[in-house]
Amino acid sequence: MRRVKEYDGSPLSRRPLGETGLMVSPVGIGCAPLGDMPETFDFSVPEQRSRDTLRAVFESGGITFLDTAASYGESEKRIGRMIEEMGGLPEGCVLATKADRNLATGDFSGEQMRRSVYRSLDLLGLDHLQFVHLHDPEHLREPGREPFEYMMAPGGPVEVLRGFKEEGVIRHLGVAGGPIDLLIQFVDTGLFETVMTHNRFTLIDNSAEPLLDTARSLGVGVFNAAPYGSGILAKGPDAYARYEYREAPPEIIARATKAASVCRNFEVPLPAAALQFSLRDKRIASTVVGMSRPERVAQTLELAQYPIPGELWGKLDSLSGFSGTSG
Q1: pLDDT tens digits, residue range 262-274?
Q2: What's the alpha-carbon Rg for the chain, to the nearest Å?
């Protein structure tokens, strides 16, 4: 495997991940599509294609961060088989998974977190997990209980995951989810080393701004997932009018249509602008892109380096109401 350079400001050099001491590639792969989840992505991914995609990632030299979750279908199992075939996770790669509720019953207890972690260890074939994110706490189904209070209660999910960290089963602990105010609550505790947001810091939605600022002020590493808004900024609003894994509302389609028009005027691919919007922000350690075909790996790395004139960003900022990239 080709080694990725340490961070020197270039598009594909590794970046520091908060205060963890780890370096990650600025582009990471989101492995949910590789888990064969047609109900979420509107397409299926055969196992061989997922294996070919993972191999392309490991051989790319430009992607060293992989993100998966217990709830991502066959994803962990397929990654585990590749790791076994290669004789271990390649040096320099960082693999993160997520501790999940029981999708069938909604159980989000501390004991369920324990089951989720052990299941991940088994499927990935590892004796410890580099990263575990508490996943989607907003999906708690406990009447009368607020997600933050429930997760932080004695014997609850966070205490169980912290216990795994103290035992060395988990090396680093983070939180991943949707609602920005809720994620800020978790980050403010000082217990989480990383935070992952999705679909909320894109060309057409900058609602994660407060979270990015809070994380930077506390030395928490940030993963920004779904820079294409789950597809509308990759395929274009005419071809794929979905955002955040559901039918896009009219205002989102309108913003995406305007962004696509600006990019056409500058002869810049819309997905290149969407990806680099995230990559150029210094608050973000790695931008996580879902991929389901091996050829997408090289294509994504090319988009990350596509030349974009500075004037384009001004046009996009003005039409979307963005104030620009934070330094």
Answers
A1: 999 999 999 999 9
A2: 19
Instruction: Say whether 147 sits in a helix, a strand or coil.
Output: helix
> Does 8 reside within a domain?
no
What percent of the chain is modeled with pLDDT above 70?
94
DSSP state at residue 287: E
CB atoms within 10 A of CB 176: 26
Instruction: Tell me whether residue 2 is in a domain.
Output: no
Does residue 119 sit in helix, strand or coil?
helix
- Domain around 271: 15-320
27 φ, ψ (degrees, to nearest 5):
-110, 125
The CATH number of the domain where 316 resides is what? 3.20.20.100
pLDDT for 34-70, tens place per residue? 999 877 777 899 999 999 999 999 999 899 999 999 9
Residue 256 above 80 pLDDT?
A: yes
Helix (H/G/I), strand (E/B), else coil: 180:
helix
- The b/e string for 92-103 (b: 16+ C-beta within 10 A; e otherwise) is ebbbbbbbbbee
> Is the pLDDT score of 75 beyond 50?
yes
pLDDT at 263: 97
- What's the total number of domains in the chain? 1
Strands (E), 166-264: 170-177, 194-198, 221-225, 242-243, 246-247
> Phi/psi of residue 79, each to 5°?
-65, -45
SS3 state at 266: coil
Residue 326 domain flag: no
**Is the Cβ–Cβ distance between 309 and 262 less than 8 Å?**
no
Q: Is residue 325 part of a domain?
A: no
